[in-house]
Design brief:
Helices cover 44% and strands 26% of the residues. With 108 residues, the protein is an alpha+beta fold.
Amino acid sequence: MSLAVSLLPIVLLALLLAGMVAFTRRNRTRASAADQQRRQNLVPGSEVMTTSGLYGTVVAVNAEDDSVLMSIAPGVEVKWTIAALRIVGELPPRYRHAIDGGGDGAQP
């Protein structure tokens, strides 16, 4: 057998590995850019939903510890990490209706 044929599997595996690394790096860069954009859009007055489904309004943003103070009821404010929040306007419509006044008005 020739040297080229015997090295073919190793070269193909190296190319596959390089492709996977490049694809992962690209996805990580996109996710980082999306996260940065989300943080910039998170300002006092923004309607948000936590990853656990709690809706509220941002009262203050603390960039030092990546947290926000969120109002969930009149006089009730809680502290959440920014990573656990999603802006309501960016959510699919089925999750937006709870803040927009949609639904039958039943309490969860």
